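Re-running the complex after MR caught last week's input typo. The corrected sequence lines follow. Everything else is unchanged.
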Amino acid sequence: MKKTIQIPLGSQHISLLEPIRFKFECENEKIIGVDADVGFVHRGVELACTRSFEFKQVGYVVARVCGLCAITHSLSYTLAVEKLLGYVANDRIKYLRMLMVELDRIHSHMLCLAHTAENAGFEALFMQIMGDRELIMDVQEAISGNRVQFDYISIGGVNRDLTPELVAMIHKNLGVLTSKIDALIGLFDNNWSLSLKYKGVGVLRLEDAYTYNALGPLARAAGLATDVRAETSDFPYEDIGYKMILESSGDIHARNFLRLREIVNSITMCQNIVNNLPVGEIQEKAKGKPNGEAVVRVEAPRGELFYLVRGSGQNMLDRVRIKTPTFSAIPAMIEVFKGAEYADAPAILASFDPCMSCTAK
Amino acid sequence: MFKSMLEAFLNLFRPIRTLKYPAEEIVLPSGYRGLIEYGIDACIFCDKCEKVCPPGAILFYQNEDGTKTYRYNPWLCIYCGECVRACPKPEEALWQSETKQLSALKEEGANEGWFVWEEACKQSREAYATAKKSAKIQNKSEE
Amino acid sequence: MRKIETTLTTLLRDIGAFYEAKKWHFLSVNGIDLGEGKIELQWIFSQYGVKDEVVIYYALSDYETPVPSIVTLIPSAFMGEREIVDMFGLSVDGAESGLYLDKDSLAHPLRGES
Ligand code: SF4
Ligand code: SF4
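Corrected-run output:
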């Protein structure tokens, strides 16, 4: 007689925001085997980038890969093309780009925290965090002119500048948010029912993080010191107070805590950027046609985003390779699920912060 | 633990967090990226806006007398503003307003109607190009 | 970015000698269509804690030659391998099709026309 039963999670499930299907092989309550199916929303973006759009337009196409990390996608693509054109942005452009990326990280991490809280059965906390997240969404909307699709970065610069009113708004909202995040840190640390659901659940060991090439918050929560912000020199992150944040226990609690601490770090960075904004033009001319091959890595909220762009001096590119963070995190995710209880699966899944529209692109 | 219970209790007496939309208007921040607007008088018909537009939301129809007609699909537009940055006469010929586009009705033919128009524009160009060519040949043979 | 040429037959040996789990982060497998039935395959690595160190192993091949799988060396590579199976219609040992496309899909979007 067969001892195991198969329980699917997804592709539509109340705890999932996006279509992904896990097939769990369960022995009683324990998960012993996992199979993941991620291709429900494949849209062929890589193909469209080389067949239908010219290289100047592709930045706006790749921004549509994902709603949450729209800015990191267009940034990585733009950086890759700028490398091919031999153009280096001035400091003001770099700072403004970093500002948007860090704001994006704050609100994406908050979404993940809210979602983990909801999947652990804490609906009120979900609402509260989502409400606070609006503070950042408002700032981003005011800076870029749109709430989700920022279209802020273009080849050779950024599209809008900061005005004094915006600076005041950024300071005000970040100030309010700091106190809210402090309260959340206390809550996630001390709340008894949350710790029941989080502590020691969904552990990724450091060894496994190395073996399965975990990345982003997932790896850092397990103690693996990897962060693209520290591993590339495209942006002067050290100058604006970047600190690598590490946890060691690798469970859901560690991932949540890591995200909270990264939010605090990002808030500091944003304030530093706004206070020390260099002077300069926000749009410069980047002339020529992309010729050659360039790779770009950018730390998206969920981990490393990788772009490889190859052009041959024409308006159409030869290849745009997009490797998204969740895509590479799936082997590590599968490892975490093995040995966990089925009932914990939604909370574990939410703590990975999976982004399916990125993965399937 | 008790702190969060106290918080939860106090929340009963705090003001409501949500917006009262639609009873109250939502105030958008200024600089909202809205519809693209066009001023025919200043336009020099350089077609730059048509070329840069990522989704192809601006098209020019080539009339037989050599003039062009501007056509814009507000539902296809992604409001990126590339066209305005490309335009040699921004603010006069082409500018971005703060108006929001409402969803399309079926009669407005946001998709099918636009496909027809795209085809028509393409054909008008080709027809104009061939007409010009044959006129040139004629001119030459007359000489 | 450093590019190191390899061939499909020596791939496992080269990557086996090169890869250390605690030093290198495996990024992805990538394919680039070169036209006329040729393809360039790439295995991309980056180093932990070192700035701008990306190493790309690449091999030139065609669509018919089966590609060896590196999952024995790098267990997380199976996702990338399944992706190139779908997108280019290559055959990789042990990698199933059907990650993005239908299992029996005949079209391979990124494969060049020829
Ligand atoms: S705003 Fe962007 S999408 Fe809209 S018409 Fe202009 S270029 Fe096209
Ligand atoms: S870019 Fe400006 S001037 Fe040129 S065709 Fe468009 S609207 Fe007219």
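None of the earlier attempt is carried over here. The longest strand of chain B covers residues 58-62. The interface with chain A takes residues 1, 3-4, 8, 17, 28-29, 31-33, 52-54, 78-82, 85 of chain B (CB under 8 Å).
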